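Here is one chain, start to finish.
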Amino acid sequence: MIRTAEPLTPIVTHRLPSNQRRHFERCKRTPAGFVALGDSICSFNPIYGQGMTSAALQAAALGSVIEGLGAASDRLPKVFYGKAKKVINVPWSIAAGGDFLMPETTGPKPPMCDPINRYLKKAFIAAHYDPVVNDQIARVQNLLAMPPSLLTPKMQWHVRRAAKRGPAGLTSPRATSAMQRGHITT
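Its structure:
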């Protein structure tokens, strides 16, 4: 079917060279009657697949703030940006931490980035062999579970046990990064 299909639109590439986050919660003043949302607050490399989910969670947070304060409240932007920050922190830490697997990544590293990335390399290999690890990684990547859920003692046991079965050649940063993106299968 794909061989005979015709594209509906031309191919479009992602033009931003990096993930970008703007800290509106730090603004002393904001324009009346206006809030930024979605990519205008935080844009992600599309390879992570979290931009639309993050935007939807921000919209839900905005809805709850409007419900609580009213749409005309002067406090709405400040309260919303505080909630948006909390929504964005999880996918941002995933994206920023994941980018530091690539040696050309620059910028401030999130706390504990290197040890977490070493562990996640093993977890991604383990995910090929253990459905418990695979399911939990998918839940975290799809923002259905928090990243610390990958660090529980039970999950660490699954990762250690299953990662031993993985091929040694899949532990380099470039191979692991490609595996995260679905380019390497075992």
